[in-house]
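worker-3 :: picked DUF7041 domain-containing protein
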Amino acid sequence: MGLKKTDQEKFLYNQLENLNLRTKSLVASAESKIKDCSEATASSLMTAILTLSNQSADCYTEWLTVAPDEKIARVQNEHNAIAMSCDNILVSLNAIAGDLRKSTPTTPIEAERPERLRKVDFRPFEKTNPKSWFEQLEVVFKSMVINGEDLRFGALLKLMDESTGTLLSNITRTKPSDPYSKARELLIREFTISKYDRLKAYILDSTPAPDERLTHFLARTDFLIEDVLIDDLRKFCVLRHAPPAVRLQLAGLDFDNKDVGELIKEADTL
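worker-3 :: tokens ->
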């Protein structure tokens, strides 16, 4: 027989508390060593923190399915605080770690030994923010010293669902020398929405989740306007009042490539 809901909640909560305690301890240890940290130590700490952080995130997500309402806000705040502390220390460690392979000499036997793909403990591909997802994945690759294009591409394939993986089938068939770079470029291009749609999502569609802190809401949505200019905002504010057919036609490349005057003139001719 499976656990009752209350027993399952207690089990998952205790597991989450344990993971949080271990993560906080490891982050504190990393923070105390950061000034005199070697590249090798920084790389090891990154791997350990990422592993614990991902385990904690998985456990937290599972716990939410059985959590009582009165606990959620407090645990969510603690979880978010730990996640942010992990993000901060990982950035610092990544700056120290560098590319260990370039600085570590290898023996002839090691040089001849083929690289093997290790398990990459990372969340599945995020279609909503592919650029940020790849940036974080590459921090993981760097910490695990996974540098080869083929190894990175192999690891990437394991993080794709079936529908997304089919987009990479041509790369799999043609076997280019830089499969990971080509896949990265393709996926970012495929799933990055236009400036118009990003502005719409940021200004009109995005709202904080229940009990979500504004700092977390900002971090979650800030990427939508990372390259937006005042001219883009002016174009959006005017174009959103155009008829739907005109708006649909101009909200793509025309929106990105034309200034506000050119775009509005074209809108008036349609």
